[in-house]
Design a protein that fits this description.
256 residues; mainly beta; 8-stranded antiparallel β-sheet; 3 helices; globular
Length: 256
């Protein structure tokens, strides 16, 4: 599932069938996860291995585990390779998302995906193929996450009380521990530090190797690829769910 939401607006979500072998776009250079990531919970169930080139999260019946990025970001293009829990992992959830802090926090969930968070749009991609675009529609009253810096978070946890067929299918703990793996973290992004963004005075140049993301748009070929994915793999679209919104669909659903 991929979703974007702000606490000031209703949740926005698109459900997709994603292969368990899905991985993020290959980063241009191998990142050192010791420099980029803090393990935040799990009591030894999360580990950085191979001299900082690999991170694993594990889940057993006692606890899951999680991590967060050391830095906060305003806008950027975030890449990471992710290998999901193999085999029968029903009931487990591998979450990967951006979130700010505070009572009116912004959150962008892109489980199993790569995302570019831009001033005018958010583009979700899997292995370089766009699967969803969420445009900035503030002009018609739709909240957009552009004012609060966000860290990257990921966790592996048990959700068999509701994640699989409404909780009917329980986690098979005989298969534990469940393990997800991460590598090649890469963030071409506006880093937030000491109350300001690294892009505040000079936005990234669209002609530079790392700055093209700032003005990224979907060309006609990318638009067609996204439509194909949605036609063949999307199983739920809130913009067509009139039962959920009997008083009328959210404004972004009817915007041109």
């Amino acid at each position: 599932m991929a979703s974007i939401y702000s606490s000031s607006s209703s949740a926005v979500s698109t459900a997709l069938i994603i292969s368990l072998a899905v991985s993020f776009l290959m980063a241009t250079s191998a990142a050192n996860l010791y420099q980029d990531i803090d393990i935040t919970w799990g009591d030894g169930r999360a580990n950085i291995l191979n001299n900082g080139q690999l991170l694993t999260l594990s889940l057993d019946k006692t606890s899951g585990s999680g991590f967060q990025s050391k830095k906060e970001y305003m806008f950027g293009k975030i890449d990471m390779q992710l290998k999901l829990v193999p085999g029968n992992s029903a009931g487990t959830v591998t979450a990967y998302y951006l979130s700010s802090q505070g009572p009116t926090h912004d959150e962008i969930d892109f489980e199993f995906l790569e995302a570019a968070i831009l001033p005018l749009r958010i583009i979700f991609s899997v292995d370089g193929t766009p699967i969803r675009e969420f445009k900035n529609s503030e002009s018609i009253g739709v909240a957009y996450p552009k004012n609060q810096p966000m860290r990257i978070y990921s966790s592996l946890w048990n959700a068999d009380d509701g994640a699989t067929r409404g909780g009917l299918v329980k986690t098979d703990w005989s298969k534990a521990p469940f393990t997800a793996a991460y590598r090649n973290f890469n963030a071409n992004a506006c880093v937030w530090s000491s109350g300001s963004s690294s892009c505040s005075s000079t936005p990234p140049s669209s002609t530079s190797n790392n700055g093209g993301w700032y003005s990224q748009e979907l060309d006609s070929t990318s638009q067609e690829r996204m439509k194909w994915v949605q036609k063949n793999y999307m199983i739920y679209n809130y913009c067509t769910d009139k039962k959920r919104f009997p008083q009328g669909l959210p404004p972004e659903c009817t915007a041109s």
